TrEMBL record:
One of its GO terms (molecular function) is endonuclease activity. This is Restriction endonuclease, type II-like protein. Residues 325-388 form the DUF559 domain. SUPFAM superfamilies: Restriction endonuclease-like. It comes from the Bacteria. It holds the Pfam family DUF559. Gene3D superfamilies: VSR Endonuclease.
């Protein structure tokens, strides 16, 4: 009975994403905006992308050039762009151009001479020019790697390069671009809207917390806000997995779509298995697996890379024993603790943790505690919290006002 009650809300959101896809097929720039819990939005969007057979690029950057590069790198991991460029030139070369158009078997000098002899029929100029640049490259790019010619084009003019690359690939066969927008990351929203407008056929999805969505509306009318409202969809609260065991499948699908490095995925699987096997009384080993995975993930994300130390030590300043912190950001004075079940078994265990928190607070640290199980089951909520704390600390140190006047 409960499952039946959940279906309409989920179905409505998935149907909305389908409608957005049809608009893009018609050349209408559409920015999908999923507003709600990041973990729940990701679970639903991952399911939709999996159903349509598309991968996902999820850059952490906040400017268009880096976002386009991340998307192109995701495309290169699943397609051979050199072959796509070769096929495009073969299809669009004028009848008087030399044949056959086989570039892979030629030397760099022969490819350059061959390219000089080609002339286009009626076609997209930007795609034609990028195709020739790629085919005339000194080195044929390795499988899975973003070609230097494409990377250089993105560095020069990202929107033109994006449109050029899209000319190689059939509609509906490119990765979706998924961008997470927190309260302090509204630049990402502007960049996403600009990409959407430059390439209307590209699937661009923003995941926003309700606070970030409200902050966007507080900034007044704009083209970005109009696009945001047009693609706005509320995320049903009951969509997210609630336990570690329920979270594993959707998370692995998302990691695969995003091209997450294999060692990082392996750490996630180890943590998930340890927590699932241990159940609600997960022990120290399970908690350590969760710590290790979260640390590796923070190192992988550009926004948090190099910020945290695993099992870092803080001197209490009173001559007592050093305080060991699971994940320590010394620069911003943020202490992240991962708690297992044993942290709540007895009164003395609880008191010891509270004394530790108080000692850290006296030293100017902000302390945040997460359940080890939630590192697997509610990962996006944890990342959102860490990002928010770090941004608040940066604002505090620079004397900037926090949103709504709070510091």
């Amino acid at each position: 009975m409960g499952t039946c009650l959940l279906l309409p809300a989920h179905t409505a959101l998935l149907d909305a994403l389908d409608r957005h896809a049809r608009r893009r097929e018609e050349g209408i720039a559409t920015l999908s905006a999923l507003v709600g819990s990041p973990a729940r939005a990701l679970a639903l969007f991952t399911g939709w992308a999996h159903r349509r057979g598309v991968s996902v690029a999820a850059p952490e950057a906040d400017e268009p050039r880096a976002m386009v590069r991340a998307w192109a790198a995701a495309l290169a991991r699943e397609r051979e762009l050199f072959a796509d460029a070769e096929a495009f030139v073969a299809l669009h070369a004028s009848p008087g151009s030399p044949r056959p158009l086989f570039f892979r078997q030629k030397t760099a000098h022969e490819r350059a001479l061959f390219v000089d002899a080609l002339s286009p029929a009626q076609t997209v100029k930007a795609t034609w020019e990028l195709s020739l640049q790629l085919l005339a490259s000194q080195e044929i790019p390795a499988a899975g790697m973003l070609p230097d010619a494409v990377e250089a084009a993105i560095a020069r003019e990202p929107f033109s390069a994006l449109r050029a690359v899209l000319g190689w690939v059939p509609a509906g066969e490119t990765p979706a671009l998924r961008i997470r927008v927190g309260l302090s990351e509204l630049r990402r929203l502007r960049a996403a809207a600009a990409i959407c407008a430059a390439a209307p056929s590209l699937t661009v999805v923003c995941i926003l917390t309700p606070e970030a969505f409200a902050a966007c509306q507080d900034r007044g009318e704009s083209h970005v806000l109009a696009m945001l409202r047009e693609g706005w969809q509320d995320v049903p609260e009951e969509a997210a997995p609630g336990t570690a065991s329920e979270a594993i499948g959707p998370a692995l699908a998302r990691f695969q779509q995003e091209g997450t490095p294999a060692p990082l995925v392996a750490h996630y699987v180890e943590a998930a298995r340890a927590l699932t096997a241990a159940g609600p009384e997960a022990g120290d080993r399970s908690r350590s697996k969760a710590e290790q995975f979260l640390y590796e993930l923070l190192q992988h994300r550009p926004a948090t890379r190099g910020c945290f130390t695993l099992n870092g030590l803080v001197e209490p300043g009173t001559g007592g024993r050093s305080l060991e912190i699971d994940l320590l950001c010394r620069e911003l004075r943020v202490a992240v603790e991962i708690d297992g079940y044993f942290h709540f078994r007895g009164a003395e265990d609880f008191r010891r943790d509270r004394r530790k928190d108080l000692a850290l607070q006296r030293l100017g640290y902000w302390v945040v505690r997460f359940l080890a199980e939630d590192v697997v089951a509610r990962l996006e909520d944890i990342l959102e919290t860490i990002d928010t704390l770090m941004e608040a600390r940066r604002r505090e140190s620079s004397g900037q006002e926090m949103p709504h006047g709070h510091r």
